[in-house]
Each structure stands twice: as structure tokens, then as C-alpha cells.
């Protein structure tokens, strides 16, 4: 489309820097277009947030605020894009935007490889861990027993609901178990995931988990005792 056809020339002007980039910042219509899905979605993934890419160049000439009114952050694709946001100082202000924080909670951004990059951002890290690694709980229905007491049941299966469903594979969970921030999370995320695991998942986890960590040993022992 015409809008998408403008994306490459505009990106080229930003990357050229100097007076050409300043001219982009001086154009109200160009600044509005910079925050659109037509522009952001048209940028090549390999250079979108990379050093020397259009958005980093925009930030370096003081124009990052143009993205603050972006109405969709779906153009951020995966954990590699999040890694760029965490590693590129010029892009870090984007992490303060509430809409960006909400978007990053999507599981497409989840990767144990981000643990080191997220370490300097403890509040963000804790928020993302909770969003990425909380078990999915089934809907509950309340049934009244003969003695008049109420008990919560899984409304889909009719069995007592204790833990929900694992949101990651056992192998990925083992990778997260190597992260001290994950192990120390206030919501006991490792315990929650193991409680949602079946016997096969637990065996897979035990084969590859960092069992030298006391917290991992304790969580696994508690789950095995509950079988």
C-alpha cells in the first residue's frame, strides 16, 4: 500500500542521520506515521530494533517520543525484540510505557535466555515471570457436599482442582529453574508449575533440572511426596 511504501524511504532518512533525520522530526505527518503499524510492521525484523536500525536512530536524534502514542505493539515479535529493548540504552524508555509492559507479558516473549538481560530490571522481571510462568487454572464450579460444605471442582472435568495446567514444557521449566530470580519469586512459581505437572513431566524435569540448587531439590521433593 501507499503507506507501507513510505516506510523504507522514511527509515532510510532516519538512518542517514544529521539534517535528514532532523527533517523527519520536524514533520508532523512523518512523526504520526512513525507510530503507525504501517511503518513499524514494515521494518525488517533483523534491523528493526538493532543498533543502526531505524528505531534506534530515531531514539538517538531525540524522536523516540513519537512512539509513545503507538496504538499497537504487536510489531514486537519475540524474545529477540525484547532483548534489544533491554540491551539498547536508547530504547530503554519504551519499557516504561504501560502498553509495552502489557504486551511483553505475552508468552511469545518468554525465554530463559533473557534472565541475565532482565536482571537489572527487577520489577519488570518479576511481573513478566508471573505472567509467563503462572500455571493456567481451569474454571471452577462450586459443589455442595452432603454436610453442607462447599468444594471447588474443575468445571470441565468434574474433579477437584488443585493446580491448573503447566504453561511451559518440563525442559523449559528446568532452564528457568537455573534462574535465582525465578526460584525466589514471591508466588512460588516453580512449586506452582510442578504441582500442575503430571508424572511424565516431573520425570522429564528431574532429568535436566539443576538439582544442585537447594530450592529445586525442595520443590521436587515436595511434589514427589504428593504423588
Write a structural description.
With about 230 residues, this protein is mostly helical. Helices cover about 50% and strands about 5% of the residues. It has a two-stranded antiparallel ribbon. Helix 1 (about 1-15) packs across helix 6 (about 55-60), helix 11 (about 170-175) crosses helix 14 and helix 13 runs parallel beside helix 15 (about 215-225). The longest helix has 15 residues, at about 1-15.
Principal-axis shape equals: elongated
Across the major sheet, the strand order is 1-2
Average pLDDT, rounded to a whole number, is 87
Strand content: under 5%
Number of helices: 15
**Rg from C-alpha positions?**
23 Å
Going by helix content, strand content and strand pairing, the class is mainly alpha
Helix amount? 40-55%
Helix-strand sequence: HHHHHHHHHHEEHHHHH
Number of DSSP strand runs = 2
Poorly predicted runs are: 154-162
Amino acid at each position: 500500500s501507499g503507506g507501507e511504501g513510505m516506510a523504507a524511504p522514511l527509515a532510510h532518512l532516519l538512518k542517514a542521520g544529521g539534517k535528514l533525520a532532523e527533517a523527519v522530526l520536524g514533520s508532523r505527518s512523518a512523526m504520526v506515521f512513525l507510530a503507525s503499524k504501517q511503518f513499524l510492521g514494515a521494518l525488517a525484523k533483523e534491523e528493526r530494533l538493532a543498533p543502526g536500525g531505524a528505531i534506534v536512530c530515531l531514539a538517538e536524534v531525540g524522536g523516540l517520543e513519537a512512539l509513545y502514542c503507538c496504538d499497537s505493539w504487536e510489531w514486537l515479535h519475540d524474545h529477540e525484540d525484547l532483548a534489544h529493548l533491554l540491551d539498547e540504552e536508547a530504547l530503554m524508555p519504551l519499557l516504561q510505557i504501560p502498553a509495552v509492559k502489557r504486551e511483553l507479558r505475552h508468552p511469545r516473549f518468554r525465554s530463559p535466555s533473557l534472565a541475565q538481560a532482565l536482571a537489572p530490571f527487577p520489577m519488570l522481571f518479576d511481573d513478566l515471570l508471573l505472567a509467563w510462568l503462572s500455571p493456567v487454572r481451569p474454571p471452577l464450579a462450586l459443589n455442595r457436599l452432603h454436610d453442607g460444605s462447599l468444594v471447588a471442582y474443575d468445571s470441565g472435568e468434574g474433579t477437584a482442582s488443585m493446580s491448573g495446567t503447566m504453561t511451559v514444557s518440563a525442559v523449559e521449566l528446568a532452564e528457568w529453574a537455573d534462574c535465582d530470580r525465578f526460584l525466589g519469586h514471591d508466588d512460588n512459581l516453580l512449586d506452582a508449575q510442578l504441582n500442575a505437572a503430571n508424572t511424565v513431566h516431573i520425570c522429564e524435569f528431574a532429568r535436566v533440572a539443576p538439582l544442585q540448587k537447594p530450592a529445586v531439590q525442595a520443590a521436587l521433593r515436595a511434589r514427589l511426596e504428593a504423588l
